[in-house]
Amino acid sequence: MREAKSKEQGARSERLGEGNDSMSGKDNGGLFRFQDLEIWKKAIEIRDHLLDLADDLENKKLYRFAEQLRGASLSISNNIAEGSGSLSKKDFRNFLNIARRSAFENANMLIVFARRNFVSTADKDELLDKLEQECKMILGFMRSLED
User: Fold this and answer.
1) Is residue 70 a contact partner of residue 77, using CB atoms and an 8 Å limit?
2) Please, what is the Cα angle at 72 between 48 and 138, to 5 degrees?
3) Domain regions of the chain by residue span
4) What is the pTM assigned to this prediction?
5) Domain 37-144 adopts which CATH fold?
Protein backbone atom coordinates (compact mmCIF):
# COMPACT_ATOMS: atom_id res chain seq x y z
CA MET A 1 0.00 0.00 0.00
CA ARG A 2 2.75 2.41 0.98
CA GLU A 3 4.71 1.59 -2.23
CA ALA A 4 1.64 2.20 -4.41
CA LYS A 5 1.02 5.56 -2.73
CA SER A 6 4.66 6.55 -3.26
CA LYS A 7 4.46 5.66 -6.98
CA GLU A 8 1.23 7.66 -7.27
CA GLN A 9 2.87 10.70 -5.64
CA GLY A 10 5.90 10.37 -7.94
CA ALA A 11 3.68 10.28 -11.02
CA ARG A 12 1.77 13.32 -9.76
CA SER A 13 5.03 15.23 -9.17
CA GLU A 14 6.21 14.45 -12.69
CA ARG A 15 2.92 15.69 -14.17
CA LEU A 16 3.16 18.93 -12.19
CA GLY A 17 6.82 19.49 -13.04
CA GLU A 18 7.87 19.02 -9.45
CA GLY A 19 10.49 16.34 -10.15
CA ASN A 20 14.22 16.84 -10.40
CA ASP A 21 13.88 18.07 -13.99
CA SER A 22 11.86 21.15 -13.00
CA MET A 23 15.03 23.21 -12.66
CA SER A 24 17.04 21.59 -15.43
CA GLY A 25 15.59 23.43 -18.41
CA LYS A 26 14.14 20.25 -19.86
CA ASP A 27 10.57 20.25 -21.11
CA ASN A 28 8.67 19.65 -17.92
CA GLY A 29 5.16 20.77 -18.59
CA GLY A 30 6.00 24.44 -19.09
CA LEU A 31 7.28 25.48 -15.66
CA PHE A 32 9.85 27.72 -17.34
CA ARG A 33 7.86 28.65 -20.42
CA PHE A 34 10.17 31.58 -21.20
CA GLN A 35 12.67 29.11 -22.67
CA ASP A 36 10.26 28.48 -25.53
CA LEU A 37 9.74 32.18 -26.30
CA GLU A 38 11.52 33.49 -29.40
CA ILE A 39 11.90 36.90 -27.73
CA TRP A 40 13.82 35.28 -24.87
CA LYS A 41 16.03 33.28 -27.25
CA LYS A 42 16.82 36.45 -29.22
CA ALA A 43 17.53 38.32 -25.97
CA ILE A 44 20.02 35.62 -24.94
CA GLU A 45 21.78 35.88 -28.30
CA ILE A 46 22.06 39.66 -27.92
CA ARG A 47 23.15 39.31 -24.30
CA ASP A 48 26.01 37.01 -25.29
CA HIS A 49 27.34 39.58 -27.77
CA LEU A 50 26.95 42.42 -25.25
CA LEU A 51 28.78 40.41 -22.57
CA ASP A 52 31.66 39.89 -25.01
CA LEU A 53 31.79 43.67 -25.50
CA ALA A 54 31.71 44.15 -21.71
CA ASP A 55 34.71 41.82 -21.44
CA ASP A 56 36.51 43.96 -24.03
CA LEU A 57 35.67 47.11 -22.06
CA GLU A 58 37.05 45.53 -18.91
CA ASN A 59 40.26 44.61 -20.74
CA LYS A 60 40.55 48.31 -21.62
CA LYS A 61 40.20 49.04 -17.88
CA LEU A 62 36.77 50.64 -18.41
CA TYR A 63 35.35 48.74 -15.46
CA ARG A 64 32.32 50.94 -14.73
CA PHE A 65 31.17 50.84 -18.36
CA ALA A 66 31.67 47.07 -18.46
CA GLU A 67 29.61 46.65 -15.30
CA GLN A 68 26.82 48.88 -16.61
CA LEU A 69 26.68 47.01 -19.92
CA ARG A 70 26.60 43.63 -18.17
CA GLY A 71 23.68 44.65 -16.00
CA ALA A 72 21.67 46.15 -18.83
CA SER A 73 22.36 43.19 -21.12
CA LEU A 74 20.97 40.77 -18.53
CA SER A 75 17.92 42.92 -17.91
CA ILE A 76 16.26 42.13 -21.24
CA SER A 77 16.16 38.35 -20.83
CA ASN A 78 15.67 38.56 -17.04
CA ASN A 79 12.51 40.63 -17.41
CA ILE A 80 11.12 38.36 -20.11
CA ALA A 81 11.78 35.35 -17.89
CA GLU A 82 10.40 36.97 -14.74
CA GLY A 83 7.32 38.24 -16.56
CA SER A 84 6.57 34.81 -17.99
CA GLY A 85 5.99 33.64 -14.44
CA SER A 86 3.27 36.24 -13.92
CA LEU A 87 -0.24 35.13 -13.17
CA SER A 88 -1.84 37.83 -15.32
CA LYS A 89 -1.33 39.06 -18.87
CA LYS A 90 -1.26 42.64 -17.59
CA ASP A 91 1.65 41.86 -15.26
CA PHE A 92 3.49 39.97 -18.03
CA ARG A 93 3.05 42.96 -20.39
CA ASN A 94 4.58 45.21 -17.71
CA PHE A 95 7.71 43.05 -17.51
CA LEU A 96 7.90 42.97 -21.32
CA ASN A 97 7.75 46.75 -21.34
CA ILE A 98 10.67 46.86 -18.91
CA ALA A 99 12.60 44.41 -21.14
CA ARG A 100 11.93 46.64 -24.15
CA ARG A 101 13.14 49.72 -22.26
CA SER A 102 16.29 47.79 -21.30
CA ALA A 103 16.92 47.22 -25.00
CA PHE A 104 16.76 51.00 -25.47
CA GLU A 105 19.24 51.42 -22.61
CA ASN A 106 21.63 49.01 -24.31
CA ALA A 107 21.22 50.84 -27.62
CA ASN A 108 22.06 54.15 -25.96
CA MET A 109 25.21 52.72 -24.36
CA LEU A 110 26.35 51.26 -27.68
CA ILE A 111 25.94 54.63 -29.39
CA VAL A 112 27.82 56.46 -26.62
CA PHE A 113 30.59 53.85 -26.48
CA ALA A 114 31.02 53.93 -30.27
CA ARG A 115 31.26 57.73 -30.22
CA ARG A 116 34.12 57.36 -27.73
CA ASN A 117 35.70 54.56 -29.79
CA PHE A 118 35.22 52.08 -26.95
CA VAL A 119 33.36 49.72 -29.33
CA SER A 120 33.64 49.40 -33.08
CA THR A 121 31.10 50.91 -35.43
CA ALA A 122 30.55 47.43 -36.89
CA ASP A 123 29.67 45.95 -33.47
CA LYS A 124 27.44 48.92 -32.70
CA ASP A 125 25.57 48.69 -36.01
CA GLU A 126 25.10 44.92 -35.78
CA LEU A 127 23.80 45.11 -32.23
CA LEU A 128 21.55 48.09 -32.92
CA ASP A 129 19.91 46.09 -35.72
CA LYS A 130 19.41 43.11 -33.39
CA LEU A 131 18.08 45.33 -30.60
CA GLU A 132 15.64 46.98 -33.02
CA GLN A 133 14.39 43.55 -34.13
CA GLU A 134 14.07 42.49 -30.49
CA CYS A 135 12.05 45.61 -29.63
CA LYS A 136 9.67 44.93 -32.52
CA MET A 137 9.29 41.30 -31.45
CA ILE A 138 8.62 42.28 -27.83
CA LEU A 139 6.06 44.88 -28.90
CA GLY A 140 4.31 42.36 -31.13
CA PHE A 141 4.22 39.84 -28.28
CA MET A 142 2.89 42.50 -25.89
CA ARG A 143 0.07 43.22 -28.33
CA SER A 144 -0.78 39.53 -28.52
CA LEU A 145 -1.33 39.57 -24.74
CA GLU A 146 -3.87 42.42 -24.84
CA ASP A 147 -7.31 41.56 -23.53
Assistant:
1) no
2) 80
3) 37-144
4) 0.78
5) de novo design (two linked rop proteins) (1.20.1440)
Question: For the segment 43-93, what is each residue's pLDDT rounded down to a tens digit?
Answer: 999 999 999 999 999 999 999 999 999 999 999 999 999 999 999 999 999
Instruction: Give the DSSP per-residue string, the chain.
Output: -HHHHHHHHHHHHHHHT-SGGGGTTS-SSSTTGGGG-HHHHHHHHHHHHHHHHHHHHHHTT-HHHHHHHHHHHHHHHHHHHHHHT-SSHHHHHHHHHHHHHHHHHHHHHHHHHHHTTSS-HHHHHHHHHHHHHHHHHHHHHHHHT--
